[in-house]
Write a structure and sequence with these properties.
Radius of gyration: 18 Å
Structural class: mainly beta
CATH superfamily of the largest domain: YVTN repeat-like/Quinoprotein amine dehydrogenase
CATH class of the largest domain: Mainly Beta
Number of domains: 2
Strand order of the largest sheet: 4-5-6-7
CATH topology of the largest domain: Methylamine Dehydrogenase, Chain H
Order of helices and strands: EEEEEEEEEEEEEEEEEEEEEEE
């Protein structure tokens, strides 16, 4: 959340905690979930969270009584959640293979229905909106699917698809170079770089020995952070060369 120096954490008990990253003090604890909270997404002052029981809760962190709405996607666990860059749509992925697109209505009740539902053949754990095309979202399938999908949620068209031959655990768009990164699990545990929109593979980083669970981009846009199930994190520096992209390992944390 840019306008406040807050870090949101979710716990296995269903709590949401807000921490001040400058003072390293907990500001408040919010309740509502009755099970493990596995994913969070900010939309301005609204913090949305998804639980193992299939519920999505919305909290207005400015309010004394922050819980302002909830909806249940399905009886399947919510394993990914993200607001679109223009803040108009919320995407949620379930362990049952459903990608749901919801309207921007944080006060929505339990009877609210998604605007769009797209089925996958396995859990939708990896998901990210395109930063420069507001209706475009990338999703990654689990080991039964292994596909990198690009969707236009306005037209309900699948724009592109690529077989990664791996479980896709995380996704990251690179706005400066119009590239897409997949953090992968079984069987290769690698990071793949894809040229967009043709989805041709341009690079592979194979240092992780376990699933690549998370990838993130630095504020400057020239470094990538990756964290794996092998309890190792890497920082990668990248820059464009003629007709190719050069990656260099910048740091490693165990």
């Amino acid at each position: 959340m840019r306008e406040n120096p807050w870090l949101a954490l979710a716990t296995s008990d269903g709590e949401l905690q807000l921490w001040d990253i400058e003072t390293q003090k907990r500001m408040r604890t919010m309740f509502g979930h009755l099970s493990v909270v596995g994913t969070l997404s900010w939309n301005g002052h609204i913090l949305s969270s998804g639980s193992r029981l299939g519920y999505i809760h919305h909290h207005d962190v400015r309010a004394a009584q922050p819980h302002i709405g909830a909806v249940r996607q399905s009886k399947q666990s919510i394993c990914s959640l993200q607001w679109s860059p223009d803040h108009t749509l919320l995407a949620s992925g379930s362990s049952g293979g459903l990608l749901n697109i919801w309207p921007n209505d944080p006060g929505m009740g339990g009877q609210c229905r998604p605007l769009t539902t797209i089925s996958h053949s396995s859990a939708v754990k990896a998901m990210m909106w395109c930063p420069w095309q507001s209706a475009v979202i990338a999703t990654g399938g689990g080991i039964k699917d292994r596909m990198l999908h690009i969707w236009n949620v306005s037209s309900l068209k699948k724009l592109e698809i690529a077989d990664t031959k791996s479980q896709i655990c995380s996704l990251l768009w690179l706005p400066n170079t119009k590239e897409l990164i997949t953090g992968e699990g079984y069987p290769w545990n690698k990071i793949s770089v894809w040229r967009y929109p043709m989805l041709s593979n341009s690079a592979e980083l194979c240092d992780h020995k376990g699933r690549v669970l998370h990838v993130a981009l630095s504020p400057e846009g020239n470094r990538i952070f990756s964290a794996g199930a092998d309890e190792t994190a890497y920082v990668w520096k990248y820059r464009m060369k003629p007709n190719t992209m050069h990656f260099q390992k910048d740091n490693c944390f165990n």
